[in-house]
């Protein structure tokens, strides 16, 4: 049951008494204050007029005999100070003509002295009734004004049906809620596709904390509760269209269900129109697939992989704007160009879906973690330019990619996307990006990671997870063997290590592997003759469930080394090791 402004309890009154007789004043104070009313006493006309002007009381009781009947003139003057005040004249029984004059001057009534409590309560009951009527009228006027504004809002929501897409309508709806209702924080999620229980974020405004891009109802409601936001279900003809998440200003809507119903109807119409006009597979603005189609294919791929014990991978791709940012048509054109570049880097069997102008999802059937890492590298090269050049200088794109593999990283679509998004965020903070070392030689690269990144070493919260260690060479070799064993736990692995005469990482791994290579692609490189690399020890691993880089310099049997789980760093190390030895180590 909705409680409205009309359900307010009887109003409390602010009563002022202008009386010289202290006994009458005490009686008024005792009777009214016990009922919760506010009572102000004034003993002369000047004080009473001053306080009436400052406090605007609801009721004033004036002893007309004060100041040789000067109180009679005050009756009329009080209405000029407080237009809505009700004035009662306190009249002695021997002067009934004064009571008539007081009413003629605007008094609501009169009270005879000696004053009785019953007579006072009856008079104030009338005043209380009038105040309640005024409060009701004001509440009705506010509700009528609010209803008029909401009717105008509903009309504007209906006109969103003229938008070109459901995303455009979602953005327009949130803009209307901000402009017409004052809702500054809002998000709109729409259903991912027919039969899907997943939602995707269609639009958001004024959100301080990054919300999920892809989730189900329960996950979104938990996120909204955590950030103290309200959730409104968008339903049209019993069909669940999506969810609206908004701040507390949404309470200003007297009938939010009316607004959400019209919004749901418009969005459902546009989504149906998009499907009928462009089909359910292709994004209307590019060569990518639709998000709904991606969800459908991913669901089938999960079922097939679970049934037949296969693997597949997916990736989230975010194309970041330039330093000055992009807006409107320029950003949309950039997104279309990014689609075409990504499609040149992936296989024909891979499914690329466009989530919004800057974000894409890629499904790679029958692809494990090693294949996903190779695909990830090709996409970065296509969008940013070849590794070793200044990234982004050729194309203007800046990209963050994260990949996840079934079943290592999750058994359902939401979990896999969450892992991939997390890794994409970490890749944006890679040491390679932070230190701008793409064009460094092998020796320069190692020295930069020892010295320029020293402030990042040892910080577990750092996105690059870079660690600086110092230990005997024999212990470093043992660490490399442990890393190899961990890599083989997930299946296949691509391993590259340096070797030289005597104890080295490469020789230690060769001995550990023996003849049991079992899906491990193992290469050793000798860089001892290269300038600045005679004391270098290095290891890179690309495994099904992650990547690893370990490299350092040896001095008197002790190694000062760095190790990190940074995909961009692994790629750069492989590129530099291959360049140094003339061996192709990158796929």
Task: Give an account of the 3D structure.
With 587 residues, this protein is of the alpha+beta class. It is 44% helix and 22% strand. It is built from 18 helices and 20 strands. The strands form 4 sheets. A 6-stranded mixed sheet has the order 15-20-19-18-16-17, sandwiched between helices. The chain is elongated. The two termini are 66 Å apart. Mean pLDDT is 82; it is low at 1-8, 390-394 and 457-463.
What is the strand and helix layout of this fold?
Elements: E1 14-18, H1 22-33, E2 38-42, H2 45-55, E3 59-63, H3 66-69, H4 71-81, E4 86-91, H5 96-104, E5 109-112, H6 117-158, H7 166-181, E6 186-191, E7 198-205, E8 214-216, H8 217-226, E9 230-236, E10 239-246, H9 256-278, H10 291-308, E11 312-320, H11 328-345, E12 351-354, E13 359-364, H12 369-384, E14 398-406, H13 413-428, H14 431-435, H15 442-451, E15 467-472, H16 473-488, E16 493-498, H17 505-513, E17 520-525, E18 536-543, E19 546-555, E20 558-564, H18 567-581
Parallel strand pairs: 1-2, 1-3, 3-4, 4-5, 16-17
Antiparallel strand pairs: 6-7, 6-10, 7-8, 9-10, 11-13, 11-14, 12-13, 15-20, 16-18, 18-19, 19-20
Low-confidence runs (pLDDT<50, min 5 residues)?
A: 1-8, 390-394, 457-463
Computed CA radius of gyration, to the nearest angstrom: 39 Å
- Helix/strand/pairing category: alpha+beta
User: Alpha-carbon distance between the termini?
Assistant: 66 Å
Global mean pLDDT: 82
Strand order of the largest sheet: 15-20-19-18-16-17
> What can be said about the biggest beta sheet?
6 strands, mixed
The shape, in one word, is elongated
Number of beta-strand segments: 20
Strand content: 15-25%
Q: Given the structure, what is the number of helices?
A: 18
Indicate the percent of residues in helices: 40-55%
């Amino acid at each position: 049951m909705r409680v409205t402004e009309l359900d307010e309890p009887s109003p409390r009154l602010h009563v002022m008494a202008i009386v010289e007789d202290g006994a009458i004043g005490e009686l008024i104070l005792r009777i009214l204050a016990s009922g919760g009313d506010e009572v102000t006493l004034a003993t002369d006309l000047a004080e009473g007029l001053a306080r009436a002007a400052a406090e605007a009381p609801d009721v004033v009781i004036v002893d007309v005999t004060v100041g040789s009947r000067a109180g009679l003139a005050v009756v009329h003057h009080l209405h000029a100070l407080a237009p809505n005040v009700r004035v009662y004249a306190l009249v002695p029984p021997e002067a009934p003509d004064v009571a008539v004059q007081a009413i003629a001057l605007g008094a609501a009534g009169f009270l005879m002295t000696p004053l009785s409590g019953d007579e006072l309560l009856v008079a104030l009951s009338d005043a209380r009734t009038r105040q309640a009527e005024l409060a009701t009228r004001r509440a009705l006027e506010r509700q009528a004004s609010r209803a008029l504004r909401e009717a105008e809002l509903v009309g504007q929501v209906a006109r969103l049906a003229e938008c070109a897409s459901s995303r455009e309508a979602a953005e327009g709806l949130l803009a209307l809620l901000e402009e017409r209702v004052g809702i500054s924080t809002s998000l709109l999620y729409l259903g991912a596709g027919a039969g899907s229980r997943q939602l995707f974020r269609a639009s958001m405004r004024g959100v301080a904390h990054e919300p999920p891009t892809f989730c189900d109802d329960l996950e979104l409601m938990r996120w909204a509760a955590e950030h103290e936001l309200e959730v409104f279900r968008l339903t049209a003809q019993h069909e669940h269209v999506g969810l609206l998440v908004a701040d507390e200003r949404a309470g200003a809507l007297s009938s939010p269900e009316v607004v959400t119903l019209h919004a749901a109807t418009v969005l459902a119409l546009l989504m149906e129109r998009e499907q009928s006009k462009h089909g359910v597979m292709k994004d209307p603005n590019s060569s990518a697939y639709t998000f709904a189609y991606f969800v459908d294919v991913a669901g089938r791929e999960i079922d097939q992989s679970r049934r037949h014990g296969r693997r597949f991978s997916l990736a989230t791709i975010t194309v970041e704007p330039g330093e000055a940012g992009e807006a409107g048509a320029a950003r949309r054109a950039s997104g279309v160009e990014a689609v075409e570049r990504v499609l040149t880097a992936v296989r024909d069997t891979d499914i690329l879906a466009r989530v919004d102008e800057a974000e894409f999802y890629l499904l790679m059937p029958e692809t494990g973690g090693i294949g996903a890492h190779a695909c990830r590298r090709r996409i970065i090269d296509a969008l940013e330019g070849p590794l070793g050049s200044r990234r982004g200088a050729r194309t203007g794109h800046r990209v963050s990619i994260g990949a996840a593999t079934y079943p290592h990283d999750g058994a359902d679509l939401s979990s896999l996307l969450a892992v991939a998004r997390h890794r994409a965020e970490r890749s944006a903070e890679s040491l390679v990006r932070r230190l701008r070392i793409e064009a460094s030689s092998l020796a320069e690269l190692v020295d930069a990671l020892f010295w320029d990144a020293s402030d990042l070493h040892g910080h577990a919260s750092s996105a690059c997870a870079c660690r600086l260690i110092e230990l005997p060479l024999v212990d470093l070799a043992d660490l490399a063997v442990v890393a190899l064993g961990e890599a083989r736990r997930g299946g296949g692995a691509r391993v590259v290590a340096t070797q030289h005469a005597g104890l080295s990482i490469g020789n230690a791994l060769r001995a550990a592997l023996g003849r049991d290579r079992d899906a491990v692609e193992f290469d050793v490189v000798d860089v001892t003759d290269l300038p600045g690399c005679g004391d270098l020890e290095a290891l890179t691993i690309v495994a099904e469930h992650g990547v690893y880089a370990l490299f350092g310099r040896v001095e008197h049997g002790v190694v000062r080394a760095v190790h990190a789980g940074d995909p961009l760093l692994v790629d750069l190390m492989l590129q530099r090791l291959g360049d140094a030895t003339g061996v192709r180590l990158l796929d």
